[in-house]
Amino acid sequence: MTNNPELTAWIDAVAALTTPDEIHLVDGSDDEHENLINQMLADGTLEKLNEKTHPNCFLHRSDPSDVARVEHLTFVCTENAEDAGPNNNWMAPAEGHAKVDPLFKGCMKGRTMYVIPYLMGPYGSPFSRAGVEITDSPYVVANMRIMARIGRRALDHIEAGGSFVRGLHSIGQLDPNQRFIMHFPEQLMIKSFGSGYGGNALLGKKCHALRIASWQARTEGWLAEHMLILGIEDPQGNTSYVAAAFPSACGKTNLAMLVPPAALEGWKVWTVGDDIAWMHLGEDGRLWAINPEAGFFGVAPGTSLKTNPNCMNTLGRNAIYTNVAVTPDGQPWWEGIDGDKPSELIDWQGRPHDPANGRAAHPNSRFTVAASQCPSYSDQANVPQGVPISALIFGGRRSAVAPLVFEALDWEHGVFTAAAVASETTAAATGAVGQVRRDPMAMKPFCGYNFADYWTHWLTFKDKSDKLPKIFHVNWFRKNAEGKFMWPGFGDNMRVLKWITERCENKSNVTKTPIGLIPNGADLDLTGLNLDQKVVDALLAIDPDIWSTEVEAIEEYFGSFGDRLPSAMRRQVERIKRELTDSQKAA
Ligand code: GTP
Ligand code: SPV
Ligand code: MN
Asked: N or C: which end of the chain has fewer CB within 10 A?
């Protein structure tokens, strides 16, 4: 199958354990893909959607108990528990293997075992990394084909002697009680059992490109982050790049494909990536980012021509939809899509839609589609060295507390700000929705090691370069007393991006507050936006009382990391507390 002896030995060992009927080395060809699709149409794994309106599009309904990432069943298995940190579920590697290996025993009997060589990152990039996922799910193969660069060219990379991450996956019986997503960063290995869904099963994505890669990035001096990458072109035609980390289902895909409002004439946004960024310091001292992925696995609900036209124009063809609803004529449908709600729908579980059963599309229903189909796809997206990053943006979904935007004072304060991000939980993971939790750098579910060590790693960059990006914090999700979003969001987020771009050129003025630098009223371009000045003021206000409580919560959270917490984090807490007290006294 392959001339790489390590890979051959591993394939043989997995086959001996899982006893598949057949073994198929995935080459990524069109013929192979067509065969897989036909097989899935025949066995009901996929349903064909309306060929006229949605050419080459398919619907998959996952098991109703298998619709999102499962954080409580996700483990980081390191020799030393402290290395995984309080931010991860931990098991010793031997224990982890002993837990899952018996589940894999004979699990592919009657099934085909697919061996998918894949590359994360552009062909020819020194930053790209290879992996091999072995899976018994043809749905995973079809999705990996969109999300990563799979097949022959990835195998060439491995056969040329590169190391690769081993990912073993089986859907098992889709039993939530026999489901584990295990990571062995010291062994560059992933074992995932019992789920066919997204981040649990497409192992190149969160498991490899974040949990394993973040571990590698620390030891090798780079960053693997849960970030979109976009280019901002100004009316003069100059493009600068930013990367932004928001927690799952908090606006990365939407920001990455933003269409500026008409009033901001001449501004354009170019999409490089929508979920993951790998960043390296260049010889010029700047941070350069690549998108390791090749496709989007995006949230369907809320996506419309109004909110995200570039996305709607991306996903209408050659796409796989998971857990959306369908109209009687076979078109995908979800809450928030354009037009009126059709009187008849089939819901995400395949039943005639009855509002008594909840929403028609699952709140975490998704589309899988090639990035190259996106109208705003950047011509720099496949450049081997990546794009130079001028600003890093962090944020969360906070109905209160966090202002629309602020700028960190310097790198150390920026790392603190990112580490202190909190956000309301969403349907992207199982569990309660809408609960505020700390989600540092939007990496709570994805950092493959102790957050304290991760912040220390972030802080080391300060001494390595004086050309690091500026750091910002944003929040599109503030709500008023009626529970309505105060900021229009989506395309209008361009107004904040424009201010950020200007700040990177040290153009506009700011007001200093204890938590960071806030735009001066007139500097945030609100032309054409009919927003009451009172609302703008409220969006930018920093209330010292509310923030005192917030900083206490941050301090308490940091306390859970004990002695490993970098002293810079404590220093920032103390400074902000002191300055808040001063401003309370002054008031
Ligand atoms: P993952 O793929 O889970 O990582 O999510 P994501 O961070 O890419 O989030 P996405 O852009 O898919 O947005 C998630 C949800 O938030 C969707 O329902 C969007 O419609 C909604 N959303 C995105 N941006 C905004 C915004 O600026 N304002 C408001 N109110 N909602 C937004
Ligand atoms: C996320 O939850 O951040 C996602 C979807 O991007 S998943 O691939 O399931 O992780
Ligand atoms: Mn994501």
From this structure: C
DSSP for 1-68, written as a single string: --S-HHHHHHHHHHHHHH--SEEEE----HHHHHHHHHHHHHHTS-EE--TTTSTT-EEE---TT-SS
User: For ligand 2, what atom is nearest to the CA of residue 68?
Assistant: 9
| Structure token digits, residue 442 | 């939007």
Domain map (residue ranges) of the chain: 5-44+70-221, 225-292+380-542, 295-373
Q: Same topology for domains 225-292+380-542 and 295-373, yes or no? A: no
365 CA from centroid of ligand 3 (Å): 13
pLDDT surpassing 90 at residue 587: no
- pLDDT tens for residues 118-145? 999 999 999 999 999 999 999 999 999 9
Q: Which residues line ligand 1 (CB under 6 A)?
A: 246, 248-254, 274-275, 298-299, 301-302, 307, 428, 476-477, 485, 489-490, 493
Compute the CA torsion angle 367, 369, 375, 379 (nearest 10 deg): 140
pLDDT tens digit string along 30-57? 999 999 999 999 999 999 999 999 999 9
Distance CA 293, CA 121 (A): 6
CATH assignment of 225-292+380-542, among 3.40.190.10, 3.60.20.10, 3.50.30.10, 3.90.228.20: 3.90.228.20
pLDDT of residue 452: 98
- Chain-centroid distance of CA 471 in Å reads 19
Whole-angstrom Cα distance, residue 227 to residue 273? 8
| Contact of 247 with 442, CB cutoff 8 Å | yes
Digit-coded pLDDT (tens) for 237-261:
999 999 999 999 999 999 999 999 9
CATH number for the segment(s) 295-373: 2.170.8.10
Q: Is 106 left (phi over 0), alpha (psi -120 to 50) or beta?
A: left
Residue closest via CA to ligand 2's atom 10 equals 199
Confidence band (pLDDT; 50, 70, 90) for 522?
A: confident
Listed residue (153, 156, 163) closest to 187, CA to CA: 163
CATH number of 5-44+70-221: 3.40.449.10
Tokens of 413: 């304060």
Please give the mean pLDDT across all residues of the chain: 97
Going from the Cα of 103 to the center of ligand 1, the distance in angstroms, rounded, reads: 36
